[in-house]
């Protein structure tokens, strides 16, 4: 592949290093939202449906429509879970067939392979929310003459401790949860506004922003094992430290290293009444709008920020920006000109191997940063291999 470094102000003309072969994502005849391509091989591939208990399982479903990059070939087996029993059925099927298994939320932190996934993909749609969300300040009055929404002078109606516990399905949109809670005056998940994943994805990744993380408000997580058995992890109340909470780290959770883990099905959060919550959430959204390429296809920040012991003390985005890599392009993959830690699918740059392009761009960025600064950047996004390690 031939790469060229150009500034964002320049015109781009970069070779994609195509190998002249169609990718699996071009070849499936299945349809999925956002999926594109129907090459010649497509006519030969068909979405066959089968049953796993009560769960409808399809074959060869393109994954491009199930992730925010819009990239990915077909999943060998594919189903959508709307109930706990669906999840259990999927686990049993996977175990009986000896398949690789992965749960997908909104796919906003994933890079699938051009050839797809040689296993079972379960898209999580367990999107219930237990009960209503009450107003934290139902008797609030506005300061005379101010007219401001956020001027709270009276409190009332909340529990005596001023806290609220909310149990929510793991497929519930994290962004919506943050918005609903902060609008009702509950603080703790304001940072979730603008994070386009599910609650399950946020717990699994310990998603965070603006100095806050998911674990901080997490009370407990209900999940199933690979064998379909129900389990619960008690994490602790809002603000508590120690115990299981310490097993959550920067974009990591204990589930990532649990060999027996199957899927998160629900989570309970504890929020506190906070008259500033709504304004804070609004401010976070405005900041995102101004600093992130929200209209482009991405998976958010691709690289973790280097740890405090990094020689530069700069964020990953700042390192990439200073290295002059904004706008660097490989095929259809490009370092965003708006936020250097966002790698985006460049509109108009068609490629038959967009996942390969993205991986090549990731490798290019890592190499440049290592050479220029000595820092080893690590991926925050999860790169999903087509086959298990050692099989390719
Ligand atoms: C525009 C944009 C902005 C973003 N901003 C942020 C940000 O500010 N902070 C941040 O932390 N992230 C951010 N992200 C990344 C992403 O939204 C988060 O990591 C999010 O939590 C992922 O949720 P998801 O449902 O999309 O998970 P997916 O991408 O579908 O999955 C991610 C991982 O979680 C696992 N997983 C998901 N759900 C379950 C489940 N129910 N059970 C078991 N495993 C599960 C998957 O198997 C996978 O390994 C951003 C992404 C985009 C596109």
Question: What key attributes describe this structure?
Answer:
binds flavin-adenine dinucleotide; Uridine Diphospho-n-acetylenolpyruvylglucosamine Reductase, domain 3; single chain; 3 domains; 5-stranded mixed β-sheet; globular; cytoplasm; 392 residues
Overview of this protein structure:
The protein is α+β, with helices and mostly antiparallel strands and 392 residues long. The protein folds into three domains: 24-124, Uridine Diphospho-n-acetylenolpyruvylglucosamine Reductase, domain 2 (2-Layer Sandwich), CATH 3.30.43.10; 163-288, Uridine Diphospho-n-acetylenolpyruvylglucosamine Reductase, domain 3, CATH 3.30.465; 295-383, Uridine Diphospho-n-acetylenolpyruvylglucosamine Reductase, domain 1 (Alpha-Beta Complex), CATH 3.90.78. It has helices spanning 24-27, 84-97, 174-183, 199-205, 277-291, 316-322, 354-373; strands at 49-52, 55-62, 74-81, 101-104, 110-111, 117-124, 163-169, 186-187, 208-209, 212-213, 218-225, 230-234, 261-273, 329-330, 333-335, 343-345, 382-383. The strands form five sheets. The chain has a five-stranded mixed sheet with strand order 1-2-3-6-4. Strands 7, 8, 11, 12 and 13 form a five-stranded antiparallel sheet that branches. A three-stranded antiparallel sheet has the order 14-15-16, covered by helices on one side. A hairpin with a 7-residue loop joins β15 (333-335) and β16. α3 (174-183) packs across α5. The structure holds flavin-adenine dinucleotide. Residues 68, 102-110, 124, 170, 195-198, 200-202, 204-205, 207-209, 263-264, 294, 298-300, 382 line the site of flavin-adenine dinucleotide.
